[in-house]
Amino acid sequence: MARFEAKLRSPADLGLAIQQARLANGLTQTELADRLGISQRSVSEVESGRPTIWARRVFDLLSATGVELSATWEGDELP
Question: Can you give the pTM of this predicted structure?
Answer without folding.
Answer: 0.83
